[in-house]
Design goal:
CATH architecture of the largest domain: Up-down Bundle
Largest sheet: 3 strands, antiparallel
CATH topology of the largest domain: Four Helix Bundle (Hemerythrin (Met), subunit A)
Order of helices and strands: HHEHHEEHHHHHHH
CATH superfamily of the largest domain: GntR ligand-binding domain-like
Radius of gyration: 19 Å
Shape: globular
Strand content: under 5%
Number of domains: 2
Helix content: over 70%
Number of helices: 11
CATH class of the largest domain: Mainly Alpha
Oligomer: single chain
Number of strands: 3
Distance between the termini: 42 Å
Length: about 230
C-alpha cells in the first residue's frame, strides 16, 4: 500500500467524521461498528479484509486492533490466530457501572463547582441535539449526543485524572451508552443533571448522576437477562 493510497484512505475516513492519526481513525471506525452492533460479539476481524475495505495498509489496522485490545473490545488469539470481538458478560457490565458510579458522580460534583457558563451552554446544545434526533427517530444521532454529553461532563470538573482513568474504558463505555433503549428517560436524566450544574449545586448534581447511572444499570442488566 503506497503513501498515496493511505492518504486517500485518510480522506475517506475524515469524510466519515474521523480525524487524527490514521491508526486512531481506523480504531474509531472499528470501535463505532462494534458499539452499534454492525460487528457483533464473537465475530472475527481480519486485518487484510479491514485494510482492503477502508483502503489502508495493514499497519494502521494492526495498530488499531492493538488499541482496541487494550480497551477490552477485542481479544487477540495468538495460538489460534485471529482477533475476536469480545462479548461483555454480566460481570463486565457490573464492573463498568461500578467504575461509572465512582468517577462520573465525582465528575458531576466537580462540574457543578467549576464549570463556566459557556461550558454549560455547550451541554445545553447537546441536549437540544438529543431532542431533535429523538423527534426525528435517529437513534444513532441520539446515541452520539448522549455519549458526547457524558464525555463533556468528564472534562468539566477540571480533574484530568477522571478522563485519563476512563480513557482505557472508552470502547466499552461507548458500547454501554449505545445499549440505551429508554431514550426519553435518559434525556430526562441528563436534563435534571444539567439543571443541577447550572444551579451550581454539587450535592444535587452528584445525586442526579448517581440516579441516572443506577437506572441505566437496571436497564442494561435487564436487557442482558433476556439474551
Amino acid at each position: 500500500m503506497t503513501a498515496a493510497n493511505d492518504g486517500a484512505a485518510a480522506e475517506g475516513l475524515r469524510a466519515r467524521g474521523r480525524t487524527g492519526p490514521l491508526r486512531d481513525r481506523v480504531r474509531d471506525e472499528l470501535r463505532a461498528r462494534i458499539a452499534d452492533g454492525r460487528i457483533g460479539p464473537g465475530e472475527r476481524l481480519y486485518e487484510t479484509a479491514i485494510a482492503e475495505e477502508l483502503g489502508v495498509s495493514r499497519l494502521p489496522v494492526r495498530e488499531a486492533i492493538r488499541m482496541l485490545e487494550s480497551e477490552g473490545m477485542v481479544s487477540v488469539l495468538p495460538r489460534r490466530g485471529g482477533v475476536l470481538v469480545r462479548q461483555l458478560d454480566r460481570r463486565d457490565v457490573e464492573d463498568l457501572f461500578d467504575v461509572r458510579e465512582a468517577l462520573e458522580v465525582l465528575a458531576a460534583r466537580r462540574a457543578a463547582e467549576r464549570a463556566g457558563p459557556e461550558e454549560l451552554d455547550g451541554l445545553a446544545r447537546l441536549l437540544d441535539e438529543t431532542r431533535r434526533a429523538l423527534d426525528a427517530g435517529d437513534s444513532a444521532a441520539v446515541d452520539a449526543a448522549n455519549t458526547a454529553f457524558h464525555e463533556q461532563i468528564y472534562r468539566l470538573g477540571r480533574n484530568q485524572l477522571i478522563p485519563e482513568m476512563l480513557g482505557p474504558l472508552t470502547g466499552r463505555l461507548h458500547w454501554l451508552f449505545r445499549q440505551n433503549v429508554e431514550h426519553e428517560r435518559v434525556l430526562g436524566d441528563h436534563e435534571r443533571l444539567h439543571r443541577a450544574l447550572v444551579a451550581g449545586e454539587p450535592d444535587l448534581a452528584a445525586a442526579a448522576a448517581l440516579e441516572h447511572i443506577r437506572s441505566s444499570r437496571r436497564m442494561v442488566l435487564a436487557m442482558l437477562a433476556k439474551d
